[in-house]
Amino acid sequence: AAMLDLGTAGTAALSAANAASAAATAITAASRASHLLAVPVDRRLPKIRIATRQAAALADQRIVVVIDSWPADSPFPEGHYVRSLGKLGDADAETAAVLLEADVDDRPFAPAVHACVPPLPWSFQEREHLTLQPHREDLRALRVCSVDPPGCRDIDDALSCREVVAADGTQYLELGVHIADVSSFLLPGTAMDLEACRRGTTTYLVQRRLDMLPKPLTEDICSLRGGVERLTFSVFFRFDRDTGLPAPGHAPRFTKAVIKSSAALTYAEAQALMDDAADTAPLTLDLRAINRCARALRRRRIEAGALTLASPEVRFELDKETSDPLDVGMYVTREANHMVEEMMLLANVASAEAILRAFPSHALLRRHPTPAPRMFDPLLKACNACGIDIDVSSSRALADSLDAAVRPADPYFNTLLRIVATRCMSQAVYCVSGAHAAPERVHYGLAAPLYTHFTSPIRRYADVVVHRLLNAALGLEKPHASLQDSDALKAVSDNINVRHRNSQMAARASVELHTHIFFRKRAAEADARVIRVRANGIIVFVPKFGIEAPVLFEEEGAAADGAEGAAGAEGAKGAG
Questions:
Q1: Burial of residue 30, with CB atoms counted within 10 A of its CB: 0-12 exposed, 13-18 middle, 19 or more buried
Q2: CA–CA separation, 495 vs 503, rounded Å?
Q3: How buried is residue 203: exposed, middle or buried, by Cβ count under 10 Å (0-12/13-18/19+)?
Q4: What are the DSSP E strand ranges found in 261-330?
Q5: pLDDT, tens digit, for every residue of 6-32?
Q6: Helix H or strand E encompassing 506
Q7: What is the pTM of this model?
Q8: CB within 8 Å of 185: residues ≥ 6 apart
Q9: Closest to 464 in 3D by CA, of 351, 356, 367
Q10: Nearest to 241 by CA among 138, 312, 169
Q11: How many Å apart are CA 486 and CA 562, to the nearest integer?
Q12: Percent of the chain with pLDDT over 70
């Protein structure tokens, strides 16, 4: 939630309310006295006393308040009403409150930002993009496709696979990861660059997307849509045809390019193509070859100690007119999802290695700190109650323990343990290489000594910085001054860490909001798992809807002794 800075004026989304037991009387009294107590969304914050002549009109509103002072003799700080976000419970008003609490900017881009975007319609120009850029390869004849969630319009990445023969006659598979060349349009120091840096990331809510960059860039000029020519930053890997792994002695090859994607597929469409044994179309064969390599990469990562973690993800079906949720359920992950994930991980690791070689003290990396043993206490307590042994001494030991923690009669039990394990860890963060010794740069969850983000420059500013570092490393352009200033890079890193965290908070809150809206007019019964036991009730998780909530005991004394319960120890029936 957005924090109120009591030393200065702070804002938060608030619900104005009087005593619930005498609402009508309180409204009348408050109107006369022109005073209300505003109740913060974040219950850790105190109620705020405000003076207003609009008391009756504000009683059922979600409002914004500024704290002005906190008198020494008052139990409440004093503030003043700024504006109303709308009626309590209204989806738009509650979404506005979510964004305020998470400090996510949803204002439209300024004219100066739009002025930096090339005019539409934009198209590839042979002379401008190839003749005058001899370093850019013409890959329009290469068979390329993208695989994304349904409805995706900001397509960052695409994949390719072709057979190549080395000078000694050895045959290899050459896998290409093609990423939108955003840095060719987003120039350092421009109004658009400063705004993208400030926003840090795109925020995905249930019903809309808050872009880091203007839509003409994200959905058209840079989006790797099917059937159109687009600029890319591509990286190629040579794979051994037998093992399905990168061939020893062949380093990744980065290049600027232009592609023409053959198809923009959804995960379901790509999976259907790969599963259809009768389909022998060239694109389908490419997907199967990429998937075979992805399986081998995944096996190698897991053998090295990479963790397969989990988080409760749900999908919504929305009414096209009202955007109200019509249905909610668990997000389905297919093998096609894993295929794309492995290719992105491979490209990100290669990018981290390349920029660190070129800029040992100025590379922007992403590290996942090794958790302190005490951080796993909730997982260890839950597993102990279930009679399961968990070894958290290393990522490999934890991965092996989680793989072995299964219950044949309860297929979701293992997933729930992985959710608990995920919550025990700190988040991965961006950092500048020079500020950390090599052991501190590792990515614990991926079991990778080096990692960064290269594959999503449309929606993450960190990837834009990495693209600029790679440009300089390849000698395509001189490094901008900001890339050689450790303090400036650290400031960028710190900001995108905050913006990424805020974006995740807003996305989770949006899911919770729309889940509440879905159940506001309907009831449902579903299996739930007990994940904690308290003195006055239990905390349950409902996998079908991704809901975690308390169920209070109605009778006093019926509760357990407050000890931590077994994760998924019982399959309870709970109302959604």
A1: buried
A2: 12
A3: buried
A4: 263-266, 314-318, 325-330
A5: 333 344 445 444 434 444 554 454 445
A6: helix 486-520
A7: 0.86
A8: 117, 118, 217, 221, 222
A9: 351
A10: 169
A11: 49
A12: 90
The 10 Å Cβ neighbour count of residue 220 is 19
Taking a C-beta distance cutoff of 8 angstroms, is the pair 165, 142 a contact? Answer: no
**CB contact set of 292 (below 8 Å; sequence gap of 6+):** 244
Upper half-sphere CA count for residue 172 (Cβ side, 13 Å): 21
Residue where the block lists tokens 């109650």: 385
Work out the number of other CB atoms within 10 angstroms of the CB of residue 370.
17
Cα–Cα distance between 257 and 259 in angstroms, integer? 7
Extract the runs of DSSP E, i.e. beta strands, from 307-435. Answer: 314-318, 325-330, 364-367, 429-432
Confidence of residue 53 (pLDDT cuts 50, 70, 90): confident
Helix 377-386 and helix 413-423: axis angle, to 10°?
160
pLDDT of the residue at 556: 57
Beta partners for residue 515, in sequence order: none
Q: What was the pLDDT predicted at 32?
A: 54
Kind of pairing, strands 253-260 and 136-139?
Answer: parallel
Q: Does residue 77 have a cis bond before it (omega within 30 degrees)?
A: no
